Each structure stands twice: as C-alpha cells, then as structure tokens.
Amino acid sequence: MKKKVSLKDIAQEAGVSVALVSYVLTNKEEKARVGQEMAKKIRKIARKLNYQPNHIARSLKSGRSDTIGLIVADISNPFFGHVARTIEDEAKKNNYTVIVGSSDENMDKSGDLINVLLNRQVDGLIVIPTEGSEAQIRQLQDRNVPFVLIDRFFPDIATSSISIDNYAASHDAVSHLIRSGRKRIGMIAYKTNMHHIAERRRGFSEALTDNGLTTAGLLKLARYSHIKEDIRTAIDQLMGAKKPADALFFATNSLAIEGLRYIIELGIKVPEQLAVVSFDESEAFDLFHAPVTFIRQPILEMGKAAVRVLLEHIRDGERPAEEVCIDTELVIRRSSAAQ
C-alpha cells in the first residue's frame, strides 16, 4: 500500500519547516507572513505529491471540524437552492465546508437531520426551520450548539436570525396592485402557522383595509401536500365569484408557478383580466407571456449574513443573539400592469 503523503514530505521537498507548510495549506500564510512565491511553491508541491489533508486528525487537534450543517426546507425549490449555493460559496471563503440536508417541510425529518449533522461533528448549524420545530430550536440552545435561523424564525424564541420584513414587502406589493387600478385582490398562501407566511398574509389584509377595500373571501389557503388541487379550487372560487378577482398575489414562487399553470389552462388573460404578483422570484416567470412581477429576496446578502453571524457564534460561545433584517425589492413587470 502506497504511503500517504504527509506535511513533513512536502516540507522536505520545499526546504521549509512543517509548521510553515501547515500555515499555507490551511490558508493562514498571511498571518504567518509567508511570501506569495513560497506559498505558491508549497501548494504546487502538495498538488504534485497528491497530498490529502487528514481532516479527522485536524479536528481532534483543534476541536473543530471546519464544517457547517445547513438544513433547508425544500431543496427542489429554486429559492432554497440559491440560498444553499450562496451559503456554500461564503463558507468556502472562510475555509468551511457545508453539509446540506432538506427537511421537505417535515418536522420529524428536520429533527433527524439535526441529529445526523451534530453526530458528524459540525461546528454549527444554519437552519430554515419547519412548522412545529420550536422544541428542536430550544434543544439546540440547551445544548449550546452555535446556530442561526435564516428566512424564518420564531418570534417567541430569542435566537440569531437572518430574515426580511415580510409584512412590509407584502403591503408594498398589494399597494402597487391597488395603484394599478385593481379593486378585487385575492391572495393564495400556504396553510401554516409559520410566522413569515402569517406576516405576508397580514401585509396583504392591511394593505386592502388601509385603502378601504374588502378582504372578505379573498384570502385562500393551500396545503403544502395538496398544492395542485388546493390552488385550482382557490382560483375557481376567486374567479367564479359574483365579483371576480382582478388581481392575484401568491405568497411564494411555488404557489405562483402552480397557479400560473392553471391560469394558462383556463385561458385567463394576464394582465388584462387578472394581474399577478408573486413573493420570491423564479426563472419560469421570464417564460410567461407577461413576465411576472415579484418580490425579490436578498439571497446573497442573507447568505453572507448567516455565515458571518454563525462563525461569530462559533468563535465566541457567549455572543448574544443577533437579529438581521434585510430589505426586499419589488420588481415590477408586465403581469401587474395597470388596467
């Protein structure tokens, strides 16, 4: 069996100390004041000898694994996929590897993933929590596990979180529809008690009441596990009413995409008969004959903030919770044009 290449082998060929090689291969050459040419030479030798770092030995020595656990709600949703990619890129800049798991909006699966990741000795967690997972979050606090919640949080639990103002974003989107001349604005949201969706619903309702418009019968809820049939029922009710809806606000991009499929099937003209706005964006919105107006979430800024805050908690276990709220942007396109 071929002998595994060690730091000592690289040091001997480079003519430097083992410590200096270690600094370079852990990206700490600036701290050790290693010249750029020497660092380049050491990395070239390491590649030539096919050096593979012993992460287990390193973590035993340092007490850290240089890995972060990330739990997203649904990796098949492009929004969460973009969040994961952003976090991976930002973590890499800080010499951390990310292990990603998807809870599929299932509380039990979320709990299993937390246990698996902690058993893998991750240094901390970034979590998009599922409905009903409050006990899991409190358990992380009790165990002094460094973690940050992103996109969603529980207002009754004091934790570090990265989020947006869902209420203000929804209020702004519905107000835009009202300014475009729409009077009967419906909303389709997930049937959930999660705070971020509740705030989107609140922003919708208050924008209508603030402008003297009715909310009666205009908010429809869809179950995550029955999205297709529930959206069809909701649109049938909104468009089949005595006074049909003239605008639709979807609480997420997944709801919007499913809704747009049915709107096309029904032959409803957008924006002539029905204006459409979605929370979150999707590449599919560009393919619709009337490009869809959407609320853009600051994914890049959210991912960077999540990694920054988590690493600060990893370095300082006594650091107080930090709540970060980042502004959204309403991207106005043809689907919400004035009548």
Characterization of the model:
The chain has helices at residues 7-14, 18-25, 36-48, 55-62, 78-93, 107-119, 134-142, 166-179, 195-210, 227-239, 253-266, 284-287, 299-315; strands at 67-72, 97-102, 124-127, 147-150, 161-164, 185-190, 219-222, 247-250, 275-279, 293-296, 323-326, 329-331. The protein is α/β, with parallel strands linked by helices and 339 residues long. The protein folds into three domains: 7-53, 434 Repressor (Amino-terminal Domain) (Orthogonal Bundle), CATH 1.10.260; 64-164 and 299-327, Response regulator (Rossmann fold, 3-Layer(aba) Sandwich), CATH 3.40.50.2300; 166-297 and 330-336, Rossmann fold (3-Layer(aba) Sandwich). The model has no long low-confidence stretch (mean pLDDT 91).
The percentage helix is: 40-55%
| H and E order | HHHHEHEHEHEEHEHEHEHEHEHEE
CATH architecture of the largest domain: 3-Layer(aba) Sandwich
What's the pLDDT, averaged over the residues?
A: 91
Radius of gyration: 25 Å
Using DSSP, what is the number of strands? 12
Shape category: elongated
Q: Which range does the strand content fall in?
A: 15-25%
Q: What topology, given as strand order, has the largest sheet?
A: 2-1-3-4-5-11
